Amino acid sequence: MLPHVRHVRPATLGEAVRLAAAPGAVVHAGGTDLLGCLRDGVCRADTLVSLAGLAELRGIQEERGKLRLGALATVAEVAAHPVVRRLLPGLAQAAAVVGSPQLRHQGTVGGNLCQKPRCWYYRGPFHCLRKGGDTCYAVAGDNRYHAIFGGESCYYVHPSDLAPMLVALGALARLAGPAGGRVVPLEKFYVLPEEDFTHETVLQPGELLTEVVVPLPPAGTRTAYRKVGPRAAWDFALAGVALALAGEGGKVRTAQVVLAGVAPVPWRATAAEKLLAEQSLTPAVAARAGEAAAGGARPLAGNAYKVELVRQLVREALLALV
Q1: Which domains does the chain show, CATH number per domain?
Q2: What residues form DSSP beta bridges with 213?
Q3: pLDDT per position as a tens digit, 84-136
């Protein structure tokens, strides 16, 4: 049952920041994750600060070699946008596999990037480490969907499909808060549990994600996003991979390889990136890149299958770009 809360709709970004900084305030955009969090008791709110009235947070615009994604742009708008489909097909692919059609039309870019972990212990009636306890129940419990990289003391996985692709594209997050505005590389926007297991992002109290800025890649860059889930729709990734390869003549010059569904943050497969640099994309190279991407994985008792998923997903996604 949802709690009773006060609902406010600020008319300006400054007013939204002020209201969001108040104790007990929670920001509301599309609400597809927030309502579930309130129902499950993951977060508590005295006031919902709706961003629906802030027109400056909407829209997708191309300007001066960059693409601006407003935080209130819907996931469906990203998937359908002609510039995204033409120049950043991997981002369109990632947006197209988020949730279901209903969720894509309601959910926003900002909400997708800032959503809470889907760990069933965190969402359930367990006083786990992330909720102030002293135990990550996933370590000895049912951990089939949990992290194989970067878990340390807390093994949730980051649920976003957009985030890995945007990290691979070198996107920047523009933030507004009580102390003013700042810009953070999206890769640095997320926080590993070893740094702070109580927060997923670097957002400070009252700070809002206002837009994501994506540099448009040079000619010859190929992008792709591929994931495997329990079902073709409505489900989060068991494992996924975002690729951004720059090169020409069948040879990779630089590579960005970011994994989804296997770590608490979008996980850079740096060993695979190094292996691909200055290589022709042959089946043998793709297979070695898959092995490199899975290197260093530390699976729990129930999720070792994700290691092979990573190997094969990276290999197949690379070959599909040839």
Answers
A1: 55-115+156-215 (3.30.465.10), 222-320 (3.30.390.50)
A2: 68, 172
A3: 999 999 999 999 999 888 889 999 999 999 999 889 999 999 999 888 898 99
